[in-house]
């Protein structure tokens, strides 16, 4: 199996798992924050759909709100840890693919190919 196929499979599984976790965390945050005493917080978590937007911002590191309830703070902390993990998987896969491409290019130069003789398609 080629590196591109393996990388594509890893990225696909990571994206699917991230989407599932996004829905799960959005639902958890909705249940934790829908009755928050702060009206701004409760309006941002008035439904699972609106909670998905705020949860996406939290997963990406852009947390514009901070008046969470204690369960909301706990879930946000877990989201942050998992979000960092899911962000680093694609970076590692893409970095590894780039390194493999460079190593293949170096191998071709060692065999005597000129740099313009070989076209690499991704």
Brief characterization of the structure:
The protein is mainly alpha-helical and 122 residues long. Helices cover 74% and strands 0% of the residues.
How would you describe what is shown here?
The chain is an all-alpha fold. It has a single domain, classed as Helix Hairpins, CATH 1.10.287. Helices cover about 75% and strands about 0% of the residues. It has helices at about 5-35, 40-45, 50-60, 70-110. Helix 1 runs antiparallel to helix 4. The longest helix has about 40 residues, at about 70-110.
Ordered list of secondary-structure elements with their pairings:
Blueprint: H1 3-33, H2 39-44, H3 48-59, H4 70-110
Helix pairs in contact: 1-3, 1-4
Q: Which short descriptors sum up this protein?
A:
122 residues; mainly alpha; Helix Hairpins; 4 helices; 0% strand
Please indicate the count of domains: 1
For this structure, what is the CATH class?
A: Mainly Alpha
- Write down the secondary-structure element order: HHHH
Give the % helix: over 70%
Number of strands: 0
Protein name: Potassium channel domain-containing protein
Organism: Polarella glacialis (Dinoflagellate)
Keywords: Membrane, Transmembrane, Transmembrane helix
Transmembrane segments: 9-31, 74-94
């Amino acid at each position: 199996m080629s590196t591109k196929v393996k990388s594509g499979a890893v990225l696909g599984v990571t994206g699917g798992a991230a989407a599932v976790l996004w829905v799960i965390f959005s639902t958890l945050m909705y249940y934790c924050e829908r009755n928050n005493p702060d009206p701004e917080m409760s309006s941002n978590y008035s439904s699972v759909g609106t909670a998905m937007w705020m949860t996406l911002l939290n997963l990406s590191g852009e947390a514009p709100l901070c008046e969470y309830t204690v369960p909301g703070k706990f879930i946000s902390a877990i989201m942050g840890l998992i979000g960092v993990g899911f962000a680093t998987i694609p970076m590692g896969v893409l970095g590894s693919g780039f390194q493999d491409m460079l190593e293949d290019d170096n191998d071709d130069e060692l065999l005597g190919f000129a740099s313009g003789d070989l076209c690499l398609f991704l």
